[in-house]
Structures are given as structure tokens and as C-alpha cells.
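yo

u said u wanted the structure for the complex thing, so here. seqs first:
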Amino acid sequence: MTTTTVHENAVLPELVTKHKTVLDRAVQAIHERTFFSQYPENPSPAIYGEGADQAGLEAYKQLTGKHFNELQQGEPAGWVGQEESPYEQAPIGVSYPYYPVETLVKNGQNTFDTWRKVTPAQRAALLIETLERVKSRFFEIAHATMHTTGQAFMMSFQASGPHAADRALEAVAAGYEEQTRFPEQQVWEKPMGKYSLKLQKSWKPVPKGLALVIGCSTFPTWNTVPGMYASLVTGNPVLVKPHPKAVLPIAIVVAEVQKVLAECGLDPAICQLAVDPAEKLITKELAEHPLVKIIDYTGGSAFGNYLESLAKKTVFTEKAGVNSVILDSVEDLDKVMQNLAFSLTLYSGQMCTAPQNFFIPEGGITVAGVQVPYEEVVAKLGEAVTQVVNNPKAGPHVLGAIQNQVTQQRVKELSSLKGRSLLDTCEISNPSFEKARICTPVLYEVNSEDREVYSQELFGPIALVIKTKNTQESVALAKEMALEHGAISCGAYTTDQEMKELIMDQMGLAGTPVSFNLTGGIFLNQNASFSDFHVTGGNPAGNASFTNPEFVIKRFTWVGFREPVQQ
Amino acid sequence: MTTTTVHENAVLPELVTKHKTVLDRAVQAIHERTFFSQYPENPSPAIYGEGADQAGLEAYKQLTGKHFNELQQGEPAGWVGQEESPYEQAPIGVSYPYYPVETLVKNGQNTFDTWRKVTPAQRAALLIETLERVKSRFFEIAHATMHTTGQAFMMSFQASGPHAADRALEAVAAGYEEQTRFPEQQVWEKPMGKYSLKLQKSWKPVPKGLALVIGCSTFPTWNTVPGMYASLVTGNPVLVKPHPKAVLPIAIVVAEVQKVLAECGLDPAICQLAVDPAEKLITKELAEHPLVKIIDYTGGSAFGNYLESLAKKTVFTEKAGVNSVILDSVEDLDKVMQNLAFSLTLYSGQMCTAPQNFFIPEGGITVAGVQVPYEEVVAKLGEAVTQVVNNPKAGPHVLGAIQNQVTQQRVKELSSLKGRSLLDTCEISNPSFEKARICTPVLYEVNSEDREVYSQELFGPIALVIKTKNTQESVALAKEMALEHGAISCGAYTTDQEMKELIMDQMGLAGTPVSFNLTGGIFLNQNASFSDFHVTGGNPAGNASFTNPEFVIKRFTWVGFREPVQQ
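structre next:
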């Protein structure tokens, strides 16, 4: 029990000055909620420099087949790597240092007394500096993301690069704001008639302790950095536990964070990469460790529910969701179906926000005031999907590749479910990667009575068309699915104001954000940093809310101190 | 599944105008954290009017021995009352209507669609209006509090009246601020080079649903109104379940809330009193009801831990705490001991913030630079207590009466514990209430090795003096107690700056607020609305934090909606 001197260092104050404008702008953006992005999503040479893409690809290739040597975590217990490219269907051959759980926890915990005494403003500035460093490696991270997740290049670049960095910045800004929202100190003076009581008071946001961030295989940085940066900015050392099949993108991020920490004279173990040894998953051991106080998790519901049941932990999860599309009435059916087909096809539906259940009334829907029969609506959806996937300029680049064989298997086994097939998967090829694991979306019809079929997440390129009695039933079922099985997004098409309000009201009660009448270049599976809240805790899909105040304030505790003023 | 029209009513906009200044001032106070109080704590005629006390006493007497007829909850299943005055040791004879759990839940749930559609500003204004009405009954509530809790008149008036109302206002202000912290709507426009994507977005704080507030026997309004008003302002209907022995004070508050609701054309069932039938406690049935989404609780740890373990509920608790006093070095030992003796004596230690464990080094403490032996320090504490309780002008009015016989029994059984008695309880009488159940504080010495004795809450007028090796051990033990068994307050006396920083640091990690070097008219068991955070979740004593953002934001969910702007 010793007091550690607050870290004094020339670099930190400089970083505070350097990044003040960005931090203030980010805090402002959180409250304005109009478009804001610090990291440009367009991978053009005009922004990122001539040859940046090629250099990133080369840098990625340099990493493959080798030990990943950039981490500053001391002598490892061994090296391990099991990533495989969905594009090559072959190992990428990077191996990472691994450490016993006790070593990771001990080294992380050892940094707590130093890290918690760095001020919130200094932590925020240091973390923004790390994002600047990561920015210089966006292309490298993009190729690493492609070859671990199967995302197409554009999504790999945007999701793992600028979009992830924006979400990280958002968490940093939110955490900074919450920690500085009350005065550090104040004189409290209570008038008592002839005299007054006078106390000097101060308040401190006290971090909770070691944090664990558990990544997923499909969005290794986008789903990891918000929790990671939220815990770091609030003073908690972090252990980043990536999915064994998607390590490289986040390993690069952690390496950059460690470099900045070291430059600031701080222990790089404030942020460690915790890779599983070859044949032993360490996630449970880490999660259950009494020194681990905060857990962020993205992945399946069973493990997420287990984590949520752990006593004395602050847990943020993003679990499975059953996302709905409600079709009621539209102006232009072709445009709607093109939009939905793209949403279904994008990264082969391997997104937590991808639509799965399409609720369509048996009497069809109104198109510009004219009733169009159910079968015609369904046929249009199938045609629109076929059109996207068969367009050689679009198909392969929208679909990407299937991250793992389980997803492919799920598509194959769909025909064993109750219902009828509306559109089968078809063969298409990717001209750049002839061995790519590709699976185009399938459509499958289910009756609204057969809840057991559509009340589960069927991760991947699978869309269920659920024939309902009317839109009221569609809304009731979409709400029920969200409340009982979770939902992260919802698409709704209606030209009827009253129906729109009903949908907002009912899906609102189910804690599910709704995108209305999307056509053109914006899709329900996309969401925007600094504007769209993501997974805010209103249903079983989770509470890893990028980024509302709850996502950051539960990572620390307010503690007050007071003492009479000598009068 | 119908949309309920948003409540339209002339009264609500008027109330918004009427209370805008108070609401804005309260929000400002939360962030300034200097002294602010909306409801004067001084029960003087100059403030509350000539004869207000007498009128309040008469009004209280009018209620005794009768049915409590002010609630607007429909035909009851029966009437029940089991309150006894600790001053008279006789029943007060008020009986309350009770209802089956299903009726309470159904009637509460039926109001949800209306209440959630009243705007946050209107809900806040309506609730402030209810506090104004409650203010007119502060004296009546004070006498009701005396004769249910055993508090002395002054504490009854202040804690159940103005201090409770200030805490309620604080919760209203915090809830209002959090719900209006993000824009209701915004145009989001993303530049895409030649064109831009333009979405109309809106965000809604969606309340979670029916809330249950479980009161305690010692502070029937102070510990109930924060959760009650926090849930109400965030749009959740509330069931107030009082302790069967302390109903009347909060029954008056609920009745006033119902009157204002009715005047606003709203269903009084938005806030119901849920009293236990004669021989059946309904708390568990209420808590486990699937429609109950939020629970606030004050009371013992066993039941609190059970509530916290319930799945799918948002739970706020204030449970037992083991509060410490650390004695290291002082300027004026007499003044310190007078202050601590008062803290021990105040309401016979029946406060969640009362000190219990006094850590004193075996080598004694430094007094104005001179070492004073341990035995002398301990003797001074005993003398100071004796002086307070034997002062006929102070003793009875500070001690009040013992709320229930279990507490009295606990004092008697103390001698069976390992250790030695330092000060026995003595006989004193209350001139106004000769039958009052009185028990003066006892001091008991325990060795620091005998953790099993002092690692439990000994609720009531019991102080343990724990002899430690040195102040470092005192701090380590106080921290350990807080982290393992909970703590809500801590007093520390040191003139050494380094020691002070160590205590702040270590007790901060244990989530425990510390009052340093209190002497004179301010005591560690007091805490101030709008300034001192109360129970912020950093240790097992609970997380019912009056009022930090977490206390209100977990009662609703942010949900966003978006739609392309027609261009």
C-alpha cells in the first residue's frame, strides 16, 4: 500500500495541447449528432497519399509468415497463430506471443496505480495520439482485415480503419466528458444564520480496475476499440483478447498504443494483447479472474449471457440479434428492393446489423397507392439480390468472403427448416481470389406461426421472408423478436404516417433503432459514429452502447472528499 | 398494441412555466456542487408560518387511529396497519388500503403508455409541483416520522421533509438533464463528393417500465423519494412498497403525488402505494413480477443481494455498510471527540452513514504534535459520549428512540462478542415521552486480528474501537472492510498531508467518501443534496447513488430513428 507519484512527464502535456481541438470537436459532435468524422473513410490517394494502398499491402505481406514482433509485453511463453484467409483458404502464417493468464493479469494490474493517476485529459490526449499512429497503418490493417474476416477491401478499410478510429475517438470523448462533468473541487458554504459552515470538497472519478475486451472474428477492430478506448480513457488498464481467427488487425492497433505509452514513459502493459495459447482458450479464465473488473464482449449470446451472469463485474455485451424489415407501403418498389438486396449482400450478411427477418403481409404491399401482391413483392426481392450478386463489378466486392465454414454450412442446412426456398445460393467467383469462400444470399419463406424458425439468429447470408396477416402483425412480431431474442437494427418501409408512428413507438419499446424508407446509397446495416447510438441496452442483444453516457460512466465510480475550511 | 395519444392538457404546460426557474437552478446546482437547497431545513415560524408545527401535529393526530383515506387507488382488498411508536411503545393505529399484487401491477402497467408520452419537461414540472404540496405537510410528515422511526423531532422534520424533498428534486433535475442531453432531432448530412446523403434523425429516451421502490423502517421518505422520483421523471410508473413499520410518512407523499396527477388529468395509478396485507409480505412477489423492470431498495444486505441477483431487472440498492473512523493525528482532541460522540449518538446510530469501527493505533495518536496514549484517546471518546447523552438539553433530542427491539437486543448481546466493554449503555429518560425506547451508545474494544467481530454491520448505537499497530494498518483495514463488506461513509483525522493523500487514495479505491478532520457543527453522517454523492457503487454497500448520472440513465434506453430527407 504505497502512494505512487502521479506521472510527471513532458510528453503528456504536449499531447494535451496537440489534441485539444480534436477532443473538443469530438465532444461537441456527440451532442450535435450531425455528420462528423475525424478519419476520412475514402481510401483515395488524395487523402492518404500516393501509393498508400500499395505500401499497406506490402507492409501486410511483410508481416505474414512471421512472428509478430511489435508488442512490448516481455518474454512470451510461446508463439501461436491460427488465422486463415477466407480469400486464400490458407493460413496467413503470422504468429503472436502468448502469456499465462496470471502474467497478463499481474502485469496489467501493476500498471493500475500509474495509469489511474494520469489525468483524464492526458489519457484522452495520449489515446488520440495512438489513433493518429493507427491512421498511418489503415491500409495495412485493411489487408489484415480482409484476410482474417473475409470482408471486401472497401469494407475492410472503412470498418477496421476510419470507422473504428471514429468510434474509438467517440468513446474517448464521451469518457473524457463524463469524468470532467463535475468540478474537481469546490468550496461548499452553508449559511447557518449568524455563521456559515464551510467545507472544501473534491470529487474524483475512480477507475474500477483491470478491463478485458473480447473481440469477434468478423469485426476485429470496429467491435473492439470502443470498449478498449472507453476503459483506457477512464483509467483502467486493458487486456485485449482477440478472436483466435482475427488477431492481426487489432494486434497492430495494440502495438501502436504500446509504442505511444512507451514514448510517454508509461508501461506498455497498460494495454496488452492476450492471445490464446495453441490448444487452450483463456477467455473464461481471464473473465473470471477476481482482478478483472470490466468486460467488453462481442459474439454469440450463450457466452455473452454467461459473462453477464458473473458477479461483481461490469459487463458490456454485443450479442446475437434478430433484425427485422417491416414492409408496409412504398413509393418505388424497385428502389426499395435494390436497397434491401444490397443490405443482404453486404459482407454476405455477416454483420450484427444485417437484416434477417422480412415481414411481408400476405395481401401484399401498397406501391405508390397500388396494391402489389405478396408473391410479386417476394419475387422482386429475389431478383434484386440476383442482380447484385451477378453483377461482376459489384457482386464479389459487396459479398466479400465467408469468414468461416460454419456459416457456409448454415446456409446449406437451411432447407431442413420448415418453410420453402425462394432463392438458392449460386456460384460466383472473385477474379482476384479464385479460392475465395463465397456464398450468395438465400431467401427462405416461413409462415408467421413457425416462430421457432425465425426466432433465432441465422448469422450469414440468410434472409427469411415471413408472411404475415397484415402490417400490424408484422410490427408485433418484429417487436416480440427484438424483446425476446434481441435486435440491433430494424428497417421499415411505410408511407403511412400513423403506421410510422406505431412502428417508432413499438420498436422504441423494444429498444431497437429504426431506419425508415431507405433507398439509394444508405443502408440499414450502416451506422454512423457520433450520431447513431449502437446497442443501447433495451433488449437482449446487449448494452455495448457506442457511445452513450452509460457505456463510459459504469467504468468508474465517483468518490467525494471534504474537510472544513480553516476560518 | 395501440398508439396512445400523447397527453394533452392545459395544466402541464402551465406547470412547466411555473417551475422552470427551480428546475434550471437545480440542474445548475448539480454541476456547481456548492451549497444549494430548495426546501429550508429550519422549521421556524418565520419560514413555515406561525403555528405550522402545532397544525402539523394536529393533522398527524387526526390521521392516527383511522383509515388513511387519501389514496386514489380504487377499492382495496382490505385495510392493514402495524406501525408502533418507539416513543409511546404503542400502535399509532393508522390503517392503509392493500391490494393484490396483480391489481397493483396491472393498474400501474396500464398507465405506462400515457406516462411515458408526457414529455420529460412536463414530468419534471409535475413532480416539482408535488414537492411543493409535500412541503405544506412537512410538519405532519415530521410527526409521522417521529412516531414510526423514533427519530427526534428535528431530524424527523429535516430528513423526512426538506432534505428528502431536496434529494427528490435532485433526482428530478438529474433525470430531466439526462433525457434532454441529446437533441430530439437533427439533420445528418454526409458529404459524398458530388452529392450528399441527408437523413432526418430523431432520438428518444424510452423508459424501461414499471418500477418498484422498497422503503426502509428508519428513513421512510429520505431513502424512498430519490428512486421514486428518478423513475417517475424518466417515464416509469412506480409502486412504492414501504416498510410495514414506517408507512405513514411516505403514504402522505404518495397521496400528494396522486392528487397532482389527478389534477393534471392523469391516472393516479402512475404512483401507487403497495402496502403488505396483514400476514403476507408482497415484496418478493412484486420484485419477481416480469413486468417490474426497475427496483430501488434500502435495507439489509441479504435481501439486497437477492434483488441484485434477479435477471432482467435494473436494480439500485443501499445495503449495509461498515463505516470506519481513522484516527491518526489531530489539533484538538476534545473537539474531535465531541464531534465523533455526536455522530455516534445522533439517532442512536440508526443511520447508514453512522460510524461504527474506530481504528486507533496502539501507540496512541498525535495531538498538536504530542503523542497521546491509546487508553487516553479511548477514554476521551467514552467521556464525550457520556457528556452528550447525559446533557438533558441534548441527550434525548439527539438520541431519539430505538426504532425496533432487535436493535436494542443487539446492544445487549454485544458483550458475548470477543473483546472488552469500554462504555456501557446507561439509563436516560425523555421528558416528553416517558415510555420512549432509549438506548445510549456503547463502546467495545476489539483487537485488529478479530475481524469476525468488526466485519459486520452492527446497526444501532454500537461503536467498536479497533486497536491497530499503526495508522497504515488502520487504513488498510478500513479499505478492506469497505471493499469486502461495504461502506457508505468514512471519517479520518490526520494533520499529516501525506497520510491524508494515502487515505484519499486508498478509500477512493474502496469507493468510500471521506470526511477529514470534522469538528464543530458538521458530522460525517450528514450529507448534502446537490453536493455529496451518496452510495455511488464502488463497494458492496450498493449503488443507489443520490444522484449521479448512473442513478437516472439506467432507467431508460436511448433509441434512434432516421429517414432520408426528400431532396
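The longest strand of chain B covers residues 196-207. The CA atoms of residues 359 and 466 of chain B lie 5 Å apart.
cya
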